[in-house]
Amino acid sequence: MKREASSIPLNSLTLPVAKRDHIQGPIDAPIMLVEYGDYECPYCGQTYQIIKEIQERLGDRLCFAFRNFPLINSHPHAQHAAEAAEAAGAQGKFWEMHDLLFENQEALDDEAIAQYAATLGLDVRRLIDEVLTGAHTARVREDFRSGARGGVNGTPTLFINGVRHEGGPDVLLAALMERGL
Amino acid sequence: MNKETKIEQRHLESHKSTALSAGAAAPDFSLKSTPDQTVSLGEFRGRPIVLAFYPADWSPVCGDQMALYNEMLPEFKELEAELLGISVDGAWCHAAFSQNRKLHFPLLADFEPKGAVARLYGVYREADGTSERALFVINAEGIIHWSYVSPVGVNPGADGILSALEALQNKKEAK
């Protein structure tokens, strides 16, 4: 689809939530929340906690998807962390790794990542191999590009039912209730 | 809308009309990119240029905007474009900012005479002594293909730039 170049900002998702995404909750839930995040970004760490609480409150009314938007010049470990989560996903444990990374933002070097993989009972060698050979680099970049095209200009950026959330994470629940229910 | 935003909007509207728009020839300039290096727009003839005016180094929104473009460099490269940041800060200030944020593209110092290039492009804010937050995509022939003035406090993101660069590439392929 082509758009007039002058029509920014669009501020809506260019890549619809599909089978490629990691989601929590039913895909046909009335509220779809998509986060573009960076595992080393402290604001994403705060948002992680808030989203956990919101998920508990809203239960099946919420579907949450996470996409990677690593700012690698500001955050030296963000790229490997993102790829490690994808590599854990390849072994069926994306969300477990996602949670561990956000809960241990101060330790995201390769050694720490290997430890988390061991904690989760993953094939550590395979995970590290995949991270070091860039097996998931393209996937992470695809997330990043879709964000850049959709109006993501920093992290975290949240979309509620396809529309960018303009407030901070502290007013996220209110916005979800208003827009999604 | 609070009073400040209102003032800002009015200010913006008064400037929006003055920003050079598509079809205009991009005024040439030579500015310092480091304390001992100068960059001219003419050097880049033959490939598209993204000229990103921003109000100041260090202010948080600019930081985010430049950080985002820094991450987008592979995409810009793929579209054969060169990115130039530009503000009224001096070359030493740019050097410190660039080093601190690990920026991998030049920041030009529109410093002396202050804001001269911003004025040429119609995006100088007299009242603030800085430029607007304005984007220009200039084609390989030196003609402005697309321009956009964002509210000063809002990071315009990269979407518009990418669309403009893709349109340029489609045109080139159609030739």
Structure description:
The complex is a heterodimer of chains A (181) and B (175). With 181 residues, chain A is α+β, with helices and mostly antiparallel strands. Chain A is 45% helix and 13% strand. Chain A has a single domain, classed as Glutaredoxin. Chain A has seven helices and five strands, in the order ββαβαααααββα. Chain B has one domain (3-174): Glutaredoxin, CATH 3.40.30.10. Chain B has six helices and nine strands. In chain B, the strands form three sheets. A five-stranded mixed β-sheet of chain B has the order 5-4-3-8-9. In chain B, strands 1-2 form a two-stranded antiparallel ribbon. A two-stranded antiparallel sheet of chain B has the order 6-7. In chain B, strand 4 (82-87), helix 4 (91-101) and strand 5 form a beta-alpha-beta unit. The longest helix of chain B is centred in the C-terminal third of the chain and has 16 residues, at 159-174. Chain B starts with a helix and ends with a helix. The model of chain B is unreliable at 1-8 and 10-15 (pLDDT under 50). Classes of the chains: A alpha+beta (181), B alpha/beta (175). Chain A binds chain B through residues 3-10, 71-74, 141, 144-145, 148-154, and chain B through 64-65, 67-68, 70-72, 74-75, 101-104, 137, 145-146, 148, 155-160, 162-164, 167.
In short:
Chain A has 181 residues and is α+β, with helices and mostly antiparallel strands.
Order of helices and strands of chain B: HEEEHHEHEHEEEEH
Class computed from helices, strands and strand pairing of chain A: alpha+beta
- Detail the poorly predicted runs of chain A: 1-10
Rounded average pLDDT of chain B: 90
User: What is the CATH third-level topology name of chain B?
Assistant: Glutaredoxin
Distance between the termini of chain B: 47 Å
Classified in CATH, the superfamily of chain A is: Glutaredoxin
Approximate shape of chain B: globular
Instruction: Return the CATH class of chain B.
Output: Alpha Beta
Report the major sheet of chain B: 5 strands, mixed
Q: How many discrete domains of chain B?
A: 1
- The amount of helix of chain A comes to 40-55%
How much β-strand is present in the residues of chain A? Answer: 5-15%
- CATH fold name of chain A: Glutaredoxin
